[in-house]
Every structure is written in structure tokens, then in C-alpha cells.
Specification:
It contains 1 helix and 10 strands; from the N terminus they run ββββββββββα. With 147 residues, it is mostly beta strands. The strands form 2 sheets. Strands 2, 3, 4, 6, 7 and 9 form a 6-stranded antiparallel β-sheet that branches. It starts with a strand and ends in a 6-residue tail after the last helix.
Length: 147
């Protein structure tokens, strides 16, 4: 697997008419240097987020729900599992099309946690053995060219 480079935008509280809803936030991510890639796996560390929904941005600009209301904390009012690490594989995501970005929708219904997010986000695409072998051969034939 190969890590996808991306630009992460700061978390934004979301709401209606410029009024933020306590406990809801969005993190937008745009993939760098890709015209569309399939996500094989993503991982992150939770930081007091209770539920997460992940949407993928297709090459046409439309968003598709990949994972909905995935529970990160067993009990939203207690910190026991509030900073666990998570790894989500492509089999758990409802998408098999190339994406150019992701949107993480974070929810924390407890009023105890004013600050919540996810951090250390890593996104991976699969690289087949054949593609890797072709890259190695290309580098040997043409060492000055980047593949």
C-alpha cells in the first residue's frame, strides 16, 4: 500500500444560518497529485469524537457516503476509549470508485467535550505487485525520469 498525500483543512463547526451546532464538525481533505484513486485503507487517532461519517468526493465532484455513523466511543460521556486508534479498510467503505478527496463528519453529542477531532490521519491506496515491478524496471531503464 502507498500513502496518499493530501491537504487537510482545519475542522469547521457546522450549523444553520452561521450558528454552529454543538457537537458537529467537518474535516475536508483534498488528495494531492491524483486525478482519482481508490482508497484501500485509512487510519487515524480519535480525540473525543463519538461518531464519524465519511464521505468520498468523486472525480465529478459529487459526494458519496462511504461510512455512516461509525461509533468511535462506546459511551460519549466517558473518556475511557476517547483516544483510540482506528483502521478502516476498503471492505468497510461503501465505495469502489476513484476519489479526489474525503469529508469526515464528526459528532460528539456530549456537552462534556467542547473540543473534539481526529488526528494523525493516514490514507492509503493499493498498489499492485505488477505496478511496483513496472516502476522498478522503469527506474532501472531510465534512472533520471520519475515514474
Amino acid at each position: 500500500m502507498e500513502e496518499i498525500e493530501y491537504t487537510e483543512y482545519p475542522i469547521k463547526l457546522i450549523g444553520l444560518n452561521d450558528e454552529a451546532i454543538p457537537g458537529c464538525g467537518v474535516i475536508d481533505i483534498s488528495f494531492k497529485n491524483v486525478s482519482g484513486t481508490k482508497v484501500a485503507k485509512l487510519s487515524f487517532q480519535n480525540n473525543y469524537t463519538s461518531f464519524i461519517t465519511i464521505k468520498g468526493k468523486s472525480v465529478t465532484g459529487n459526494f458519496k457516503t462511504l461510512l455512516k455513523n461509525f461509533r468511535l466511543m462506546k459511551f460519549c460521556h466517558y473518556a475511557d476509549d476517547s483516544q483510540n486508534f482506528f483502521s478502516i479498510k476498503s471492505e468497510d467503505l461503501c465505495c469502489n470508485e476513484p476519489l479526489i478527496g474525503l469529508k469526515f463528519i464528526l459528532r460528539q453529542p456530549s456537552s462534556q467535550w467542547k473540543c473534539f477531532n481526529i488526528k494523525d490521519i493516514k490514507i492509503y491506496r493499493s498498489t499492485s505487485k505488477i505496478n511496483k515491478e513496472l516502476e522498478i524496471i522503469e527506474k532501472k531503464i531510465n534512472p533520471c525520469n520519475k515514474v
